[in-house]
Amino acid sequence: MITRIIIVTGIASLLSAKAFAQEHPQHPQPAAQLPRVGRAERGPAEEKKVTKAEISAGIKSYIDDQTQRSGDKKLHVSYGGKDLALALIKVHDDRLSNLGSGKYFACVDMKATDGKTYDIDFFMTGNPGNMRVTDASVHKVNGKPLYNWKEESGVWKKVKT
């Protein structure tokens, strides 16, 4: 009887820990992560707080611009030594983040010409409507994660699954 209680308690602990795990850097607290800068030292771009709607518009504008420039009207991302030709399915507006200091995060679902769905994580800089992607990585293939996100001392890091 005691053994059953211990097993049930252990399983419940594992399941509850998994439920609280972070997958994406959804809402980092930039003020806690970044050194404070005095008003006189701030540039004009740092004074404006960028909204999630502006980040969404920025990533959509970036994807649209890149697809218009490509011959096949697809966004191209390298993965596993291959060039993926991707079409936008959805921007995860609930997973957009202003990371502070003119840096932003966006999570996007895209469909490849091979029929697979890819979840792409983008890190960007710039102004809404004119953002430049500094890093893009394939996070999931057909819903299966290749890595997860973990916060350590206020900094988000990729961790193997």
Provide a descriptive summary of the structure in words:
27% of the residues lie in helices and 41% in strands. With 161 residues, it is α+β, with helices and mostly antiparallel strands. The protein has one domain. Strand 1 and strand 2 (82-91) form a beta hairpin. It is globular.
Largest beta-sheet details: 7 strands, antiparallel
Shape by Cα distribution = globular
Beta-strand portion reads 35-45%
Mean pLDDT: 76
Radius of gyration: 19 Å
Order of helices and strands: HHHHEEEEEEEEE
Q: So how many helices?
A: 4
Report how far apart the termini are: 34 Å
By DSSP, the count of extended strands is 9
**What's the helical proportion of residues?**
25-40%
- The overall number of domains is 1
- Judged by helices, strands and strand pairing, the structural class is alpha+beta
Q: Which stretches are low in confidence, meaning pLDDT under 50 for 5 or more residues running?
A: 1-23, 25-42
